Amino acid sequence: MLTELRHRLGGDSGSEAAGYGKRAGLLSIGVGLAGLVTYLFFAISSHVLDTTEYGELVICWSAVFITVSILQRPVEQLLSRTVSEHIAHGEGYSRPLAVAAGIQILVSASFFGIALLLRGPIQNGLLHGNETLYWIGIAAIAAYGASYFARGLLAGSHRLTLYASLIISESLIRTLFPVLVALGITSGQDAVALGIVMAPALSLICVPVAFLVGADRGNEERRRAVVDSSSRKGLEFSAAKGSWFAGAVLVIMLSEQTFLNAGPLLVSGTAGAAAAGYIFNVLMIARAPLLLFQAVTTSLLPHLTRLRAERKEEDFHASVRVTVIAVLVFGLVVAGVMALAGPFLMQLAFSDKFSYERVGLILVSLGMGLYLCAATLNQGALAQGQVRRAATRWIFSAAIFVAWTLSSVVEEVDLRVEVGFIGSAALLCGLLLLIYRNPKPEAGHEIKPDSPEEVEVQLAAADEGS
After folding, report:
1. Torsion over CA of 177, 180, 184 and 190, rounded to 10 degrees?
2. Per-residue burial over 302-326, b = 16 or more CB atoms within 10 Å of its CB, e = otherwise
3. pLDDT digits over 170-226, tens only?
4. What percent of the chain has pLDDT over 70?
5. Please, where are the H alpha helices in 183-272?
6. Interacting residues of 339 by C-beta distance below 8 A, sequence separation 6+
7. Dihedrals φ, ψ of 409, to 5°?
8. What pLDDT shows up at residue 80?
């Protein structure tokens, strides 16, 4: 009986993991191109601007990217998970779309009100009095709202080719602006910074296509849904449920951007814009692979959600395990490259205006591997319904990173950020691993008698007993 249940609820883990690996690999090619083009945006900008102008540019970008990731990506993750879950159960997803749109409109409206009230501190303090950078940042955040909404729909409905097209178009448009400066067609910091807002704005042409093609894909997937009707109970999606999930993911996104972008901002306040530009370049070792890894995380969450909905636990854990091994190996390879030729490669990419320390580059490379491992485990935890538990671990680890960076334990500020990054990434990875290996029912999701969840628990108990 146990074997029969396992066969019915499980599946061929090798074929599922291989299928996921193929889809993630194809998407990685497209998003990898986008990551490379984004890398070129900063490399070219570093060459055509002086150190202060470049530092101000990366501060503006960091502020925009942090805000967008915190405010807009929770809706993307919400749609990615719920659309995939509804398709796997053979249900429509118009309700999740409406709820997600309402959440995003409310959050965006609140942000604009706060941004206008705090225009003085933002423009004069953070952006060194640059009015153009202020309005570019505000407009870019607005444009990215629609872009991330479309990304969530595309990921959840498994339209990954169109997803990659949207990302690539954004990167190409953004990089065109420093290229025009390098060719002498335009000049100045404002001309380069304009690419930050024009990229998401012009790429919005993909959004109508996203809705049309995403809807067709959803209808096809629902027709092929294999989950029995008994597992559809509790699938109702309310504004409260969506808000809880999006709120917890917002905390995760805030913590994520603290890891990746708080370093330059904190350094800017204590050591100036030029120092901020230096540490920004160093953290590009972690940031550039993360852009590539977005291809994996984009496909991983809906993939794992579907496997959970179909009770394919072996496939679920096989997909997480393969991804974790891959990112750890990648981190070791990058660390080896940095050990051999890191300072030379960094100056080749970002000019010789800065001198890079080999030890710091190695630390960030290893920290990048651990951070990507944590991001993988986080997607597994979200698919298991552990969003609030994961959020508390993220915010705790991010707070440790900020506290360490602001301390004076290590006198050199750049080394302090580098050590803090790898240490906090290791802490986060360990905490998320504990959640992933020991999931607990979230509040309001108690296991009911004779439900599929109860069968799962019984199978797990049998495994523990044996």
Report:
1. -10
2. bbbbbbbbbbbbbbbbbbbebbbeb
3. 889 999 999 999 998 988 888 999 999 898 888 767 666 555 554 444 445 444 444
4. 75
5. 189-202, 206-223, 239-271
6. 358, 362
7. -60, -45
8. 76
